[in-house]
Amino acid sequence: MSGPAGFSTEALHAALIRLPRLADLAPDALEPMPLKGVAHDHVRLRGRRLVARIPRWSQLGLDAWTALDRQAAAFRRAEPSGHTPRFAGLLPPGEGLPLGALVVGEVEGRTPVLPRDMPAIGRALAAIHRMAPPDFYEPLPAPPDPVAALLAQVERQAEWFDRAALDAGARALIAEELAAARAGDLAPPPEAPMPLTAVGVDVHPGNFLIDGYGKAWFTDLEKLQYGHPASDLAHASLYTSTKWDPAVNAELAPADIDAFVEAWAMAVPGDLADEVRPWLKPLRRLTWLRTLSWMARWSVEGATLSPGMPEGLRAHMDAHATDILRAERIEQVRRDWR
């Protein structure tokens, strides 16, 4: 039997039982979980409180081994935060499991309800941001200038604005934002410190679970790296993110965003909060461009990026991409900083 990404459950089971702690795992203990995102399938290991995390494709364009090594490092590095699943094993790529898999701890929780759970998400991000940096950043990226690196990513992805079916109004507004970013208009005063912390990157609310105690857990660590924490605060609360997951599908009011940021600020050291505040609006704009350019790519080739998705999920994501690339929606989002 084959999964939608080309893996077989037989190959997955054969790889799992090679792990000493899972040598006695029965084949019928593998329970496929509903597909939620675009990049991974998940299979619950019943009775073990573990989940196999199976890549469908690499959003970072990495080969299978490099992608697995980076994800394994991300889960190991983030575990001390107390807000991410624990790392439990790596399954190498092979026949029937072409992109390999990770085994991580299962988080029992529900989908966030917004805006109620945004402060909990803020505290989870704070736990990641306040972790002590490692002695060596590799294999996770750690650009010395995370803002310049973010702009470079936007530039790489900007070609998708030309390839997407955008109307003239949307193109003009996006061109204004790109010009401002290229001219350095999005930067705070030169004397503003630039903190470097662990960042989750893909921290839209659908990538969190809320446990029975109200604690938020960040579950998708594929893109974890070292960067500017203001980009996480932006990505978690932008319209482009809060409407992405159909199970969340909410729009935040300015007061909701303020409460979210304040919950984060109360949970990090005071000097970090002070260093980040001048960057909140500039990086909100730049992070929005990063997300919007990625969604422009999705609007062009989403069907080929992640084949086999349930039709309802794909329809929602396609509709969301169309919505956020409209001139009226772009102008609405820009009110956050204009």
From TrEMBL:
Pfam families: APH
TM region(s), chain numbering: none
The entry's keywords: Plasmid, Transferase
InterPro entries on file: Aminoglycoside_PTrfase, Kinase-like_dom_sf
Residue ranges occupied by any Aminoglycoside phosphotransferase domain in the UniProt entry: 46-256
Keyword Transcription regulation among record annotations: no
Entry superkingdom: Bacteria
Signal sequence annotation: none
Protein name per UniProt: Aminoglycoside phosphotransferase
GO MF: transferase activity
